[in-house]
Amino acid sequence: MTNESASVVMSPVLDGVVNVSKPAGWTSHDVVEKLRRSLGIRKVGHAGTLDPMATGVLPILIGKGTRLSEYLVEWDKEYEAVMRLGQDTDTQDATGAVIQERSYAGMTEESIRTAAAQFLGALQQVPPMYSALKVEGQPLYKLARAGKTVERAPRPITIYQLEVLKVEIPDVSFRVTCSKGTYIRTLCADIGQTLGVGGHLYQLCRTRVGPFHIEDAVSPLEIDQEFLSHGHNQVVRGLDAVLSHLPEVVIDSSMVTRALHGAPIPPSAVSQALGEPCEAGSAQEILRVKDPAGQLLGLGKFAKESSDPSEIGLPLVFVKVFRQSS
Q1: 35-44, 177-186, 245-254, 300-309: lowest mean pLDDT where?
Q2: Using CA atoms, how far apart are residues 260 and 22, in angstroms rounded to an integer?
Q3: What is the CATH topology of the domain spanning 16-73+213-239?
Q4: Which residue has the higher pLDDT, 262 or 120?
Q5: Where are the alpha helices (DSSP H) in the chain?
Q6: Which of 69, 112, 145, 300 has its CA 20 to 30 A from that of 258?
Q7: How many helices (H) and strands (E) does the chain have?
Q8: What is the SS3 assignment for 203?
């Protein structure tokens, strides 16, 4: 990514998540910095890093949206990738040095599809050395660049779908839907090992992260025009929409100010979205908390115990407040 000297244009502070299409060659941090400059705000982050060689969906968190990352980590992801057989690289992708070449003569489409099918479902995957995971405070990629290799514990992942799209040996195009924490380059290397010929990730496009699809994504180079000329309503998904997978409760209007100052809300003042009294759920469950007008106030959960014996049920306590008290 080239440096830009454009002046910062101030715009209203936005709160939510932008569906950005990351170009090849940009780091995820490059995209964040670009939006900081073009929107004139500092509170910008991202959910789910993409390697520089990869393209596709990169959710960008803006304003109060930067406080949501811990609630979005469970989003599953979808990729379209090309695996190149016959070559192992030190990074498990096309950016690395080839460390071993093997013949793929006699390889068939049937054997490739059979091997790929073995990677469906719950798996244990060893993270690659060239990754941002830390061991004793050190990112693995820094150790790898220093020529060091350390033991990495396998981590549980799930491959929900793995569809071979096209086979043009040595290249195999496929689509994969997977859980958080899945490394597609490691998946390619593992399939290559299963086939006995080795392999690495040659191309990668992330086509979906949770509710964000590539068809709706916006280039970071277009966001200047979108925000400054046409407004941002069609680009930014608001906090409530992004958190729509969380259960919703409503508190009485008389309790709103109390809640925004951090005081617990008695169970008698809490109802479900449709208006009926709320039965306290798990103390670990995170809930969207709204006022009677449907405005999102913040995130809350039920306390582990009640300090008021006259109340039936558990009080609601906020874990994050999005709306300021007046």
Answers
A1: 300-309
A2: 37
A3: Pseudouridine synthase (3.30.2350)
A4: 120
A5: 28-39, 69-72, 109-117, 140-145, 184-195, 223-230, 239-242, 256-260
A6: 69
A7: 8, 19
A8: strand
> Which CATH fold topology does 77-209 show?
Pseudouridine synthase (3.30.2350)
Per-residue DSSP letter, 161: E
Residue 41 and residue 55 in contact, taking contact as beta carbons nearer than 8 Å: no
Q: Which residues contact 188 (CB under 8 A, 6 or more apart)?
A: 81, 83, 92, 93, 199, 200, 201
- The SS3 assignment for 160 reads strand
* The listed CATH number (1.10.10.60, 3.40.190.10, 3.90.70.10, 2.30.130.10) that belongs to domain 246-321: 2.30.130.10
Predicted local distance difference test score (pLDDT) of residue 280: 58
Beta carbons within 8 Å of 21's beta carbon, 6+ residues apart: 55, 56, 57, 58, 214, 217, 218, 219, 220
Does residue 46 contact residue 61 with C-beta atoms inside 8 Å?
A: yes
Which residue from 319, 248, 322 is spatially nearest to 284, judged by alpha carbons? Answer: 319
Average per-residue pLDDT for the chain: 86
pLDDT of residue 1: 47
Residues belonging to the active site: 51
Angle between the N-to-C axes of helices 223-230 and 28-39, in degrees from 0 to 180, rounded to the nearest 10? 30
Reported as a pLDDT band with limits 50, 70 and 90, residue 206 is very high
Lowest mean pLDDT among 160-164, 276-280, 290-294: 276-280
Contact between 90 and 141 (Cβ < 8 Å): no
Ramachandran bin of 82, using left for φ above 0, alpha for ψ from -120 to 50, beta for the remaining angles: beta
Please report the pLDDT score of residue 275 as a whole number.
Answer: 59
pLDDT at 183: 95
